[in-house]
């Protein structure tokens, strides 16, 4: 049996197919530009020797349902799945679970409805996730489907961490609070850390830094997220690829008045044209580092602002946790940029956070320790794997139904 994981965006479908026995990956792919000219599926599948082969399908795809049919036929053509009856289940990434969902949830019509009702809190994400879910329910009607929420891991944050200092009926009536995101990744890497250092998660205080195009930090005590940098939406917190992160709310009102931009236009600017891209025109950290190293001042500023904000959150979460055993770097930037790791920790030696340059520069795949011997905090680079975590949670949920 196999398990399929789907991460659906407004014009894209990312997927991974795992063997349900050992969670080895059988196929992965990305379909882009759904409903636009130039739709393209890049499908990677594992052959009998274990090597992955890429097949590309260029054809017009009108909607997510057609998209899933193409994914299905790409998987079938590569000979790794005969029919949907070989699927134990399908796991869907859903960005916002609000206060309704805090564990993996089997999807039925009522759940679809509830996710839709959360759309006002997450207009950029939940409707896009739902397009994939609805297409998948239609296309694979007999297969159990499970929603795994990005917010779920943070749902036990204490009230003093999740509330905003706003009039209380803004929470009571409109559910305005901090929810946090990237939960699947923060939880996954924290679990990996505990196994790696051979201590129960319950005994560890960890700061996890998920640094990718989206970026967030989390303070984890005893396996539980007690604070995180993203808020009601993924806009708050760290500087990101295209999102501004922390911002004086008055900036939005001021910009509304002085530029004449509508609320929607401002929301789009803060989400898509800000962050690293806003500062220097680029959101690929590799390019930014290359230009910064050549002395390009805007790229240098973007790099410095990114690392400075990470450092501020490390300091804040050190204070929140009181004692820190491990700081984890993960995500595309956290896993691959020694310079970002080094600069984010610069000046934190007094907290026992000391990067060893040689270890930091030479780390390979898997989990690596990059602290100096004399540092009291272990600094780990851990590869995240949100899709694998979703596959596992999907399987566990379906198994619990079958046995319960
Ligand atoms: P993610 O969203 O987790 O896929 O991460 C994407 C980000 O990782 C992009 O900003 C990439 O530029 C960045 N990234 C990937 N590889 C490297 C690298 N070797 N050095 C610096 N940044 C990297």
Strand order of the largest sheet: 5-4-3-2-1-6-8-7
Strand element count: 14
How many domain units?
2
Provide a count of the helices.
15
Low-confidence blocks of residues: none
Helical content stands at: 25-40%
Find the structural class using helix and strand composition: alpha/beta
Q: Given this structure, which CATH class of the largest domain is correct? A: Alpha Beta
| CA distance, first residue to last residue | 20 Å
Overall mean pLDDT score? 95
- The CATH topology of the largest domain is given as Nucleotidyltransferase, domain 5
Bound molecules: adenosine monophosphate
Specify the CATH architecture of the largest domain. 2-Layer Sandwich
Describe, in plain words, how this protein is organized in 3D.
There is one protein chain. The chain is 40% helix and 20% strand. The chain has two domains: 2-149, Nucleotidyltransferase, domain 5 (2-Layer Sandwich); 199-386, Nucleotidyltransferase, domain 5, CATH 3.30.420. Strand 9 and strand 10 form a beta hairpin. With 404 residues, it is of the alpha/beta class. The radius of gyration is 21 Å and the shape is globular. Adenosine monophosphate (AMP) is lined by residues 212-213, 241, 284-286, 289, 331-333, 336-337.
């Amino acid at each position: 049996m196999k398990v399929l994981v789907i991460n659906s965006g407004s014009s894209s479908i990312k997927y991974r197919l795992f063997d349900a026995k050992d969670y080895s990956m059988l196929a992965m792919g990305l379909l882009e530009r759904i409903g636009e000219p130039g739709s393209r599926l890049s499908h990677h599948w594992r052959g009998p020797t274990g090597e992955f082969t890429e097949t590309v399908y260029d054809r017009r795809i009108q909607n997510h349902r057609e998209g899933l049919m193409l994914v299905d036929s790409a998987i079938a053509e590569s000979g790794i799945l005969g029919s949907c009856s070989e699927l134990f289940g399908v796991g869907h990434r859903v960005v916002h679970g609000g206060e309704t969902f805090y564990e993996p949830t089997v999807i039925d019509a009522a759940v679809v409805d509830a996710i839709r009702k959360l759309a006002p809190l997450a207009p950029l994400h939940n409707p896009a996730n739902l397009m994939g879910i609805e297409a998948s329910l239609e296309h694979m009607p007999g297969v159990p489907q499970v929603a795994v929420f990005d917010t779920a891991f943070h749902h036990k944050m204490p009230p003093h961490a999740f509330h905003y200092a706003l009039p209380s009926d803004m929470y009571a009536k409109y559910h305005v609070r901090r929810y946090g995101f990237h939960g699947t990744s923060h939880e996954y890497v924290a679990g990996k850390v505990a196994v790696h250092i051979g201590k129960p998660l319950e005994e560890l205080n960890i700061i996890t830094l998920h640094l990718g195009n989206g970026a967030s930090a989390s303070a984890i005590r005893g396996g539980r997220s007690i604070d995180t940098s993203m808020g009601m939406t993924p806009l708050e917190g760290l500087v990101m690829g295209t999102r501004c992160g922390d911002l004086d709310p008055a900036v939005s009102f001021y910009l509304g008045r002085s530029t004449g931009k509508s609320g929607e236009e401002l929301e789009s600017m803060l989400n898509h044209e800000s962050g690293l891209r806003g500062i220097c025109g680029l959101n690929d950290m590799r390019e930014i580092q290359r230009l910064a190293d050549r002395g390009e001042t805007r790229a240098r500023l973007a790099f410095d602002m990114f690392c400075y904000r990470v450092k501020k959150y490390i300091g804040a979460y050190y204070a929140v946790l009181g004692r820190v055993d491990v700081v984890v770097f993960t995500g595309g930037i956290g896993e691959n940029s020694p310079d970002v790791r080094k600069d984010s920790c610069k000046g934190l030696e007094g907290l026992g956070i000391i990067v060893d340059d040689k270890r930091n520069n030479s780390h390979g795949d898997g989990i690596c320790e990059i602290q100096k011997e004399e540092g009291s905090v272990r600094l780990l680079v851990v590869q995240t794997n949100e899709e694998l975590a979703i596959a596992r949670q999907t399987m566990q949920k379906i198994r619990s139904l079958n046995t319960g």
